[in-house]
Amino acid sequence: DSGVTQTPKHLITATGQRVTLRCSPRSGDLSVYWYQQSLDQGLQFLIQYYNGEERAKGNILERFSAQQFPDLHSELNLSSLELGDSALYFCASSPLGPLANEQFFGPGTRLTVL
Amino acid sequence: GIQVEQSPPDLILQEGANSTLRCNFSDSVNNLQWFHQNPWGQLINLFYIPSGTKQNGRLSATTVATERYSLLYISSSQTTDSGVYFCAVSPYSSASKIIFGSGTRLSIRP
Question: Is A96 a residue whose pLDDT tops 70?
Answer without folding.
Answer: no
